[in-house]
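Need a sequence for this fold. Nothing fancy.
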């Protein structure tokens, strides 16, 4: 089975002028965006463009540990040695995590050398701020990161000429979709393609605003067959379902996506667990008010932040003490908020047709178990849908 690394080895001898941009290139650029580039790349608006080869050398020399989500190091090393990616330019890096203003936003721009641009937005990192903003997508017409994504895209378009492609993985895919749908008309006219790689869709209220412009013919939603993230709020959106070498939540990792030539290998359709999540979450969100969605998000993340943690891993490592703090935070809420949270969880259980009852009974312990499974999923080679165990 081949993945993006095999693709670089195979297609790396030909530049973008010889062989045009394709969907696998999109994912590779999104993977590059996960590296901790702070102070290593030209800053947003600086006007400087650095070859990827030099950027990769700086990253390797920095000795920085790989991010917990996906390790871009192998792809960067191969890309830096290839004709296709080594002389690709990189510019306009920005990374902002601000808990007070509830924003986690990171973006960068690639210059493939064929006269086009590829703007990529990073997906959710391990911070509570990033995950909280993900949850807020369910009730916010727009988030701080989405607004930043529009400003970033318009700024890049103002500084550089040529056709523009926009993409991202996970939350980055949502930002790409949002930015392209809400940017200035003159910028949108230059957009050739928008890629959401297993990213959630847009809130229904955002779609109903007068500023929203649907992307006709240029939007590509790509999800693995057991996708959980990419089916959220995407409704009946046309999607390309592809094969992965992993199981369950591990399929969210771009390094597991299977490649044939210049395309991803298509699967026969979504697997059972993905279909279950798709239908369940859709029913759940339809049955919840905006207030209920926000109350549930606030209860969850206020509780985790009360532990003093900055990341999901720190919450997990806090063990029973962290669980106790979260429970106390819930019990300290006023009665109306407590009821709203409990009612929201009950609606989720009902939307799941009873399959979520056992998990709901576990309460905070169940939440800690979910966090634990999410963080250790990369080591679980036998990860299976809960109902099949």
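Here you go.
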């Amino acid at each position: 089975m081949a993945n993006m690394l095999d693709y670089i080895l195979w297609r790396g001898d030909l530049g973008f002028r010889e062989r045009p941009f394709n969907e696998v290139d999109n994912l590779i650029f999104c993977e590059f965006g996960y590296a901790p580039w702070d102070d290593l790349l030209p800053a947003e608006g600086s006007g400087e463009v650095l070859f990827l080869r030099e950027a990769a050398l700086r990253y390797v020399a920095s000795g920085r540990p790989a991010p917990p989500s996906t390790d871009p190091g192998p792809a960067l090393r191969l890309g830096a040695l290839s004709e296709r990616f080594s002389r690709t330019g990189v510019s306009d890096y920005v990374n902002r995590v601000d808990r007070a203003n509830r924003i986690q936003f990171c973006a960068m721009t690639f210059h493939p050398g064929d006269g086009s641009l590829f703007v990529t937005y990073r997906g959710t990192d391990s911070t509570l701020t990033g995950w909280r903003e993900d949850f807020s997508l369910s009730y916010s017409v727009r988030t701080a990161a989405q607004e930043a994504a529009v400003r970033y895209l318009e700024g890049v378009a103002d500084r550089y000429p040529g056709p523009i492609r926009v993409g991202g993985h996970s939350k980055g895919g949502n930002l790409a979709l949002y930015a392209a749908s809400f940017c200035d008309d003159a910028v949108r006219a230059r957009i050739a393609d928008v890629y959401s790689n297993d990213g959630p869709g847009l809130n229904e209220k955002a779609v109903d605003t007068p500023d929203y412009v649907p992307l006709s013919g240029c939007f590509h939603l790509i999800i693995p067959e057991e996708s959980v993230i990419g089916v959220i709020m995407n409704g009946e959106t046309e999607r390309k379902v592809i094969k992965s070498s992993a199981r369950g939540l591990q399929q969210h990792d771009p390094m597991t996506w299977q490649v044939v030539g210049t395309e991803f290998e298509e699967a026969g359709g979504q697997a059972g667990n993905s279909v279950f999540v798709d239908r369940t979450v859709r029913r759940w969100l339809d049955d919840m008010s905006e207030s209920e969605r926000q109350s549930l998000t606030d209860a969850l993340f206020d509780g985790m932040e009360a532990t003093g943690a900055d990341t999901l891993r720190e919450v997990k490592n806090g063990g029973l003490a962290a669980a106790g703090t979260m429970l106390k935070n819930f019990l300290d809420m006023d009665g109306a908020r407590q009821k709203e949270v409990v009612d929201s969880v009950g609606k989720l259980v009902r939307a799941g047709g009873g399959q979520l009852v056992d998990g709901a009974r576990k309460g905070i312990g169940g939440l800690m178990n979910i966090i634990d499974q999410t963080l250790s999923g990369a080591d679980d080679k036998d990860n299976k849908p809960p109902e099949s165990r």
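For context: The two ends are 26 Å apart (CA to CA).
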